[in-house]
Structure formats: structure tokens, C-alpha cells
Amino acid sequence: MISLLIDTSNRPLSVAINKDGYCQAEINTTVKKTHSATLMVYINELFKMTGCKREDIDRIIVARGPGSYTGVRIGVTIAKTLAHALNIPLYSVSSLAVIAASSGREGIMAPMFDGRRGNVYTAIYQLEGSTLEEVMDEGYMELETVLDSLKAHDGGVVLADAGEKFSSGLETFTHAVPRISSVEKFTSILRQEDVHQMVPEYLKVSEAEKNWMERTQS
């Protein structure tokens, strides 16, 4: 089983080719470059490094969000296009679960992305061995809400990208960025998608969508 894995949810970009769940090659960046300009370049580089051809890929796994509206859309669109063109299965994974799987630690953790206006996108996970379980549903919420929930779990940590500015004033956290190659061993967090019906999961409508809905309902 050869998988192509893609995560462009936020500032970091992570792409990988796995064989039977183990990483063959991966490219992870945290530089400020446009994902639309670099993603296919990096994917082609993975093919060169591994010697794989597109027709060798058995399935695609993509981070479905939450995250940057533009970033998530780029990854999902390219994943859907490739899955359709190659006629192979498409799977998705929460972008928050990618951070938890990439953290290299076990126990309780709350990966977070900035949600602006003092809010965050987050969930609480428990990782034990090869099991990654969501113990608090992902959502868009105030930082204090999730911190209060973490207090019920001794040793629970916040995972965040040190390069991301948080409007909520997040101060204490463990630095973590996505390595999409890490998710495949956690089969419970992978969801098979209909390549034609799959849409990103933003957890919150964009300001443009909100304004449009307000105008059309008035």
C-alpha cells in the first residue's frame, strides 16, 4: 500500500509518500511561501526521491481542516483532483489530529490553531501506543474553555506552532508542527471520502461567507 499524504492547512506544509504505513520520503516546511505555488513541486520531488510514479499510488490522505481557509482549500482541491484522475480512494484526517499524531508524545494533548478574536480551533486527544482518541470534540472556542477542560486531565499539554501569533494570548505550550507521514498508523482517525462530495471542514464560516449570508437574509 503506497499512500500520498498532504497537509497545507496552515503556514507549515507537509507532504509524504508512505509504503505500508512507513515513511519513504517527506517534505516539511514552515517558511512563508504560497502553498499553491509549491505543493505540486514538492509532490513531484517526492516521486523523484522514491522512484514512484503516479500510477503506483494506491490512495491519498489529506488534512481536511480546520485551518487557513485558503490553505485547507488548496490541499483538498489537489487531493481530490489527483484521486479522481488516478481513480484511487481518497481519505481525510483532521488537521488537529495531524498535530497530535506528529507530536512524538503520549498522553493527553490539545493541538491548537489561532482562530482570531481571542478564539482557537482545538480538540483534546489521548494518544496511547497506536491509538489516538478524540476525548473532546474539535471546535472553535475561547481559549479559556479548552484550558478549563484540560485541567481535568493531569499532565495535559497544549500543542501549537511557535511561529504562529495567537490573538488569544496563548503563552504556555509545546511547539509542534505537522508531519503528515505520522497519521497513517492511527487508522481510527482516517475517514474515507467521496471524491466528488468531500468539502473542507473549517468549523467556522469565513467573514466573506458570513457577510454574504447576512446580505441574502436581510
Automatic annotation (TrEMBL):
EC main group: transferase
Gene: tsaB
Organism whose genome encodes this protein: Salinicoccus roseus
Record-level GO BP terms: tRNA threonylcarbamoyladenosine modification
A molecular function (GO) term: tRNA N(6)-L-threonylcarbamoyladenine synthase activity
This protein's name: tRNA (Adenosine(37)-N6)-threonylcarbamoyltransferase complex dimerization subunit type 1 TsaB
Superkingdom in the source lineage: Bacteria
Gene Ontology annotations for the cellular component aspect, listed alphabetically: cytosol
InterPro entries listed in its UniProt record: ATPase_NBD, Gcp-like_dom, T6A_TsaB
Residue span(s) of domain Gcp-like: 31-148
EC number(s) given by UniProt: 2.3.1.234
Pfam family, one: TsaD
Keyword annotations from UniProtKB, A to Z: Acyltransferase, Transferase
